[in-house]
């Protein structure tokens, strides 16, 4: 069996020589400024190159203005990109890794919002029911696109990249032409496989013709669209065979999914509701079909043990890990460094990366708040190191509290953390009890391990009473979390709701009765994950919300998969209805627009997912500085809690340099 050490020895993949088999695949960061790689990109990728990876693939570089979904993506169609990419090449080479440039046209999902001209697609079919209708490309536009790919290839080669990746996957434009689900054309580019593959061929030919003959080329494909009427593995093996027979590629990068507002898009960046390695059969099938080509596997590989297993069983030659590198830039280096602190593994929550990607914001990470702000955090850490050392008390052992305590300890402060509960973890400990949210438990374990590794004095089952607060602390961080409102929800008509608190429904799902109504005022994945938990117990679940959308805070990269898991199991949802009372065991719902009432029958219990309220904290003796963080400051998610906690811990000392460095972290991402 391939051990992680063998995974980490030099390898040749076609004409590409790498120091190991581990790859950072393309991931759009939204860090670009004016369409160019920014200083933030340099710091971000330098950290990952120094972290030991063999190859980094740039985020999708847009080959044409019609592919610019957002202003903060990278424009491969702009000559100025050469200089900024060359700087990135130097940064990555400086860290010992190689850099490939991904050339991309996203096609119809560009939406046209950024440039106010329609997005281009194979056919006039929007990617989701709420998306703009794209323009079905003319043959002149197709020719313009092919030229744009070639011109972009010339630019990235001039910048000195080590390889070029052509994106024929993920439901982007070339796949939109290839797939019968998205190509309804009746010209030379539609209909038969030969016709649907024509654009990909023209692009490949133009790009290979434009690149120096020695430049390694990676072809990224979706081996399965997981879509009715779309491309499956068998068809993709045939299509790929037609390409590799005629053109030289060095690596086949075997991904999956289409950009369609169904479960398909939610497989691309599969979240924690999937098990690890859910798509390993795809690279394995490609390796069997193309044994002479290097195959790059990707998708919830999660860690280097899994990566080694993929190589060991012959499924892949190279293995890509995107989110694990977002979470831990030193993924490879930590493996071989006995002094490395406890690892931070990606928990596949999709909150900081995919969630912010969807909002057009710079990516971040729940388990690594330093993503995209590497220089600013380094400056704060340096300032904190030189500041006076304090006695710091952290009250609360959830995400924000453990982050604050660890950060303060890493800056040299003497830190005590008190937690009233018998265990660390706060709100995440409850979330992790839901099968769909289980990997939050891993985050709790990792936070706890870091806290202890850094020598924090952790006291469980201890409340911060007046006596404790008077023990001579210099600084107190309150990370005391939030709680559901103490007042029960009052029915305006009939009897009281048969309400069960969320925590009881999670911990004793058997006690909810046969038909549970979840009233969702929260919009996160909690309602869907709780529904799944109750369905496992044989309950019927009706989700009610007064909003026009279901689970409105869950990214499109997760929501369709979560809904698919509930389908056909006794789950239903009622939108735009507010609960107003009970009549016997029927719950009265009122349409907020018309005022009309209707009812849901045979309700055994109701769980209200309501906005939580910050827990108050006791006063501290005068002269002691305090900070409130996470839910105790304003109830939000683990993403904000981790960021704020780390900031508070490093900024505990009020020295001028620390304050300035901390201020530089606010409002930057
Ligand atoms: C924030 C984010 C942005 C992404 N952007 C791109 C992209 O620009 N091009 C691309 O081919 N894949 C993109 N991906 C997909 C990744 O390359 C990868 O296939 C996916 O994250 C699954 O791998 P993982 O489980 O190791 O994260 C993106 C993924 C994430 C998380
Ligand atoms: S935000 Fe969540 S899914 Fe994204 S990289 Fe971080 S831990 Fe992984």
From TrEMBL:
Signal peptide: none
Molecular-function GO term, any one: oxidoreductase activity
Highest taxon of source: Bacteria
Limits of the NADH:flavin oxidoreductase/NADH oxidase N-terminal domain: 7-332
Record SUPFAM superfamilies: FAD/NAD(P)-binding domain, FMN-linked oxidoreductases, Nucleotide-binding domain
InterPro entries named among the record's database cross-references: Aldolase_TIM, FAD/NAD-bd_sf, NADH:flavin_oxidoreductase, OxRdtase_FMN_N
Transmembrane regions listed in the UniProt entry: none
Cofactor(s) the protein needs: [4Fe-4S] cluster; FMN
Keywords, ordered alphabetically: Flavoprotein, FMN, Iron, Iron-sulfur, Metal-binding, Oxidoreductase
Family recorded in the similarity comment: In the N-terminal section; belongs to the NADH:flavin oxidoreductase/NADH oxidase family.
Protein name: 2,4-dienoyl-CoA reductase-like NADH-dependent reductase (Old Yellow Enzyme family)
Source organism: Saccharothrix texasensis
Lineage: Bacteria, Bacillati, Actinomycetota, Actinomycetes, Pseudonocardiales
